[in-house]
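> tool_call: predict_assembly(chains=two)
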Amino acid sequence: MKKDHMPKDHMQEIIEEDGKKLSIPEELLPENILMTIQKVENSTKNPMDKENGLQEKEETSRNILPWYRKYRGPIAGGLVAATLLLTLGIHQGFSSLSQEKASSTMSMTTQGNFAAESCEEAKTMEEESIQSLTLGEGVSSVTSYEEVAKAYQEAFLQDDMLYMVQGALDGEVIVGAVEDAVTSSAMANSEINIATGKTKDYSTTNVMTEGVDEADLIKTNGSYIYYAKPGYHWIEIYQAKDGSLTFCGKMDLAELSEIQEIYMDEQYMIVTGLSYQDLSYDASVVLVDLTNPEEGKVVDQWTQEGNRFTTRKVGDRLYVVSTKTSTVKADESEELCYIPKVNESYVSVDHLILEDEVKTVSSTTISSIFVGEKLEAVDDLTLAGFGGTTYMAEDALYLYRTDYDYNEEIPDVTKIRKIAVDPATGQFTALYCGEVSGSVRDAFALNAYEGMLRIMTTTSASYQRQTTSNQIYVLDETLQVMGNLGGLAPGERIYSARYFGNTAYMVTYRETDPLFSIDLTDPTHPKVLGALKIPGFSEYLHGYGEGLLLGLGEIAGTSENNWKQSLKLSMFDITDPTDVKEHSVYEVPDAAEANALTQYKALMIDPEKNLFGFSTWNYDADWKGRCYYRIYTYDKDNKTFKELGKVLLGEDQYDSRAVYIGDYVYVFWSEGYDTISLP
Amino acid sequence: MKEMELVKNAAAGDDQAFVALYEIYYVQLYQYAYYTLRTEEDAKDAVAEAVADAYQGIRKIKKYESFRSWIFTILRSKCNQRMKDYYKYSYDARDEEREADEVENAHGKMLRQDGNLSSGMEEMITVRDAWGRLNEKERDILSLSIFAGYESGEIGRMLSENASTVRSIRKRALEKLRKLLGEPQTLETSSF
């Protein structure tokens, strides 16, 4: 990839100088290092040796194993693969246990579907199902918490790859599928605004799947704008009228330690964030009543363990997906430390599903919640030994994770788990496991359609991933491969993808960068319809109505300053997928990158209104990041992009957002806001 | 290439070759661990474990491009395992406000005392103190770029951020340090 030239400045030199002043401990000097290595290995063989390593923490609630006691056996070379941890952020620890030895009757009160059961009763349940949940191969139900704890401990002690997965976050999104199918989204787009009687003329969040709402930093209902200002601990409320914004105040939610994003509906708002309890941060959502729009009232809160989480909303059903990573403990009686809690209760044994092959000490909990007067529990399940990125369609929630072998002995593999949901009731009906080769760049590479799952991946043949190839798979309802097409654009990687019913578009980079059109009418035999070769690449594709496809991407850097890159907008004519043409290309001036390239929710877009906007970034002469929020429209007749206006933002404003209401675009960033009038 | 030879030999069981490889990077390894974990004891443990893992692991790897990259990845995971236990380093949005005040005050204090920004004052904080005022992510990115020598693209992949976010966090962190340490700033050109 491009070599970046980060300017070395004076400050860096000062830090380096300071670093030079450090005195290296004797044990780490090269002449002593072999002896130190021996000491480390000896301590692991002898758990009682406390001479090296961390001091044990005083607090009993932590009870962390000193590093040398983690391993019961000799350090195997495979632990090198613990370097896979590099792909992950820092995870929370675990909940305090000493006070919480729960009784064996542990289950959530739900809307009557799940009776409280003791572990004794759970043992009589059938192996293959939990209540009415069908399980595919690769996972099984459990009859005790101990089974999960044992599985984790064994996994941890193996000299095999052990992951702390990224968890239930949204990955970077390449391009999502835009379904032509009529769903409840059709209704959403023509909502009647009761107050004014007009149909909706304001922007909504650019979600990945129509019909599946997602939380974002900014939401509007056409008269009020709510902005969860990034880096601050409140939600700002503005009233927007004919181009002017009135600040109405802010909502400071004490219930959350950190505010992340919001959902908005007619009467209520849901705020997602983290809540700090028992020495850890947990996923939490708060239901706010907006009967008085300038002063929300908190009416309920839902918390589940795992600080890596995401949510989705389908109508009045909210789905919370969180991943909890545990620290393996020496004391086997503490099995509860691996079991996640939802609203202070441990998930019940009969809602726990265990991966047959546990490769990570993480479990992902998915809750289905009905948003009524309160947040009412409908269903939940916890998959122990798996965590991944979330992609949701209306009738199923998918988790996927790519496993990379650092030593390159095993090719990249993407594992998928499908949790089928009954959209009418919000209940989980089945869990299936699937696997495809290659890696997935982001959730837009997946698309659920008529019960099938299509997925595009890039396979790599070497550590540095120089040799690659690309393919598309079609999986059936139980995630078995029905068809696949490989060998696409060898040597390149997928940069963006988009699905329209049975036609898929894939952009690869970086030698010739074609835009492929792929026909999926026969799921067992996907075929390439055409490949348009274009300079540069698109990282994000969005259907723009009437046979047009919008691409946001880059014109790749060239020559000496090959770090210099430029943002480009492309419009493709896809009326005939076998002969895709470039309708128009526009190089955005003074823009190296756009946040929307990798954060789809940062893009404000409404093809019907023929308006879209996003913020751009570029280095200025003094190496500062200069950002603008720019809005565009597309002139189809003259085949040109037109910039309708721009606002200068503060430095590095990657979390800026905008909404349009009527003929005005309101732009927000952490240091201010502004308005652009549309012509 | 000399390093390749060393790796080959070390993988074949030549201890001295391994030591020679270690010698090339040992200072940076310790610097990275120290600036990340902030105590000598923790840094020492992290590096010792990482090197022990590398010693075992080097026999197993069949192909690699960069020893530096590989061993720093191992060290990083050792540091991360410890970091998650260190709630004293946890950081939330409220801290950012408080910290912004601290930075401003530190800056202001130095100005008032002396009229100009110069070193050698009693109240001057050390680089390591200032480093401690950065948040986890900022420290991580600076350590990875300054001590471990990673580029923003590589760092971005490790932290699941895009390269330019990494660059801007890095810049912001250096700016913060500059303010805390009273370094003369580059001229502002316009109001950003």
